[in-house]
Amino acid sequence: MFLFVAPFVLLLVLALIWAVKFFLIQPVFDPLRNLPGPEASLFTSHAVNVVDPQRSVIYNRKYREDYGKTFKVHGFGGYDLRLMSFDVRTITYILNSPTYEKPKISRGLLATFLGRGIFTMEGAEHAFQRKIIAPAFATQSIKELMPIFFHEAQSLRDKWEELVLPSKSTSDAPGHTLLDVSHWAARSTFDCFGLACLDYNFRAVQGETGELYTAFRTVFDLVNEKKVLRLVFPILDRIWPDRIAREIKKHLAVIYRTGQEVVDRKREEIQDEKYKSKDFLSLLIKSNLSTDSNKRLTDSDLLDQITAFLFAGSDSTGLSISFCLLYLAEHPEYQTRLRDEIASATTNHDIAAGDYPPIDSYPFLNAVVRETLRLYPSVHSTIRVATKDDVIPVSHPVVMQDGTVIPAGGSFPIRKGSAIHIPIEGLNYSQDIWGPGSLKFRPERWMSDTESPSFPGLSNVMTFSLGGHACPGWRFALAEMKVFLIIVLPRFRFLPVENQVIRRFNGILTRPFVKGRAKEGFQLPLRLERLES
Ligand code: HEM
């Protein structure tokens, strides 16, 4: 009996010792404890305050006002101390230093549906992948993709012309048609990515029936339905898969099968010496062929890389386009100004014949797109974890709990394993950077010589992050958004829906839903009025 019970008791004692150390002792010696921050008990979490877009607007500002630019919050509870900072020096340091990586837990979660793509990589392997794909997203390559962006925007415009009633044609809603613009923009950005990066036509705008499109779409949508427990412990999906895990597995099998045909076709084309294309898939395959055979990606790794890029590059841009249309619907004066700018820039050009002015000949369009990206960052926030003990620099003084002051230019210690919450949206809304009207949609701020923002993020916003993991597709996204507006705005007027409030939900991406109608799922309905062409 003793022999039977003893190991069990020993295990229990070890678990207890671990729990006391982890929950009670370690936090006492954590250097982050001395940072200012909201007080909390062992069971208090501030996570919702900083990740829920409905609350983060209020709490980011409150914490910043109460504790200064750099402070701590509690993650899952009092034991889980996390660093948070609005100090640009601190953020720049963390995001550029190889000491800070994405948390293993979120990489594991992404791996359950994106496989071994770029999101799961760190260090040399990650840097190698970034180097391979860089030419596909360089300025010149994006210029070469313009005809695809124009063609796809025109397809969506034509589709909407079939759906949107001519002005004043119905009695109940004269001249207006209600459309969920986020649904359509997502389909269009899928098609754009497919043609631009894979040389593959998903034909999602024409109909949501393609096997590969349906498989990708279903996997990306199911991720939003995952239960919190399974997000935190992805291993559950392996040992005890629920309906969502089983569905994801089934559709991933389609992606591997059908995607393989796309890869095989491209590989054949590449064998031809005259083949010059620099699209994303060609670069991946070419680099793979020229790599030392024992370092080569397997075909399934290649497909995982495609899945990761498609996931990162389609909905993020589609959602940004949708929020841009919402802002323009809420600000008709800007909508008219933008339509006028597009009309005068394109007067002597035949866009349908592929003759369009350079994308930088629309200063107000540029301002509208960047202001949209500032106010709506589709990635709300991100996390990094220290992989070793380190010291973190600050450019603004921090008054510690024990009364000591870390001066501007000084630094404070951080322990291996500590998490840092990077408030992407918070930095985009910061009054210190953007002035007192930081929450207002005001594109003019991008056109003024005196207030032109000098924020270090890509395109001067935090939206695409910065450092080694910053978004490689930012030029692609900006160009796609601009072309979409150039094509669609001259044909439609966008109006808000009466008594409808759009709220945001932060999953992996921040998605819109209608207040009071969350059960209907993510959507961003607007009223469209067809204009004379
Ligand atoms: C408006 C649209 C977009 C936004 C707001 C956006 C935002 C971001 C952000 C914030 C990150 C960094 C996440 C982190 O550090 O945790 C990121 C990474 C990434 N983005 Fe984008 N992105 C957009 C469009 C695109 C496009 C069009 C592509 C590709 C065609 C793309 C591909 C990627 C990839 C592959 C990564 C991972 C980079 C790495 O880990 O090295 N994104 N994006």
Low-confidence stretches: none
* Shape estimate: globular
Rg (CA only): 25 Å
Please state the structural category.
alpha+beta
Continuous helix count: 20
Total number of strands? 14
End-to-end distance, in Å?
88 Å
The order of strands across the largest sheet is: 1-2-10-5-3
Q: How large a portion of the residues is in β-strands, by DSSP E?
A: 5-15%
What fraction, in percent, of the residue positions are helical? 40-55%
Overall residue-averaged pLDDT value: 90
Ligands in the model, by name, code or SMILES, are: protoporphyrin IX containing FE
**Main sheet makeup:** 5 strands, mixed
What does this structure look like?
The structure is a single chain. The mean pLDDT is 90. The chain starts with a helix and ends with a strand. Helix 15 crosses helix 17. The longest helix is centred in the middle third of the chain and has 29 residues, at 243-271. The chain is built from 20 helices and 14 strands. It is an alpha+beta fold. It is 50% helix and 11% strand. The strands form five sheets. A five-stranded mixed sheet has the order 1-2-10-5-3, with helices on both faces. A three-stranded antiparallel sheet has the order 4-14-11. Protoporphyrin IX containing FE binds at residues 118-119, 130, 193, 308-309, 312-313, 316-317, 320, 377-379, 382, 424, 463-465, 469-473, 476-477. Protoporphyrin IX containing FE (HEM) is lined by residues 118-119, 130, 193, 308-309, 312-313, 316-317, 320, 377-379, 382, 424, 463-465, 469-473, 476-477. Belongs to the cytochrome P450 family. Its main location: membrane. Keywords: Heme, Iron, Membrane, Metal-binding, Monooxygenase, Oxidoreductase, Transmembrane, Transmembrane helix. InterPro entries: Cyt_P450 (IPR001128), Cyt_P450_CS (IPR017972), Cyt_P450_E_grp-I (IPR002401), Cyt_P450_sf (IPR036396), Cytochrome_P450_monoxygenase (IPR050121). Heme binds at residue 471.
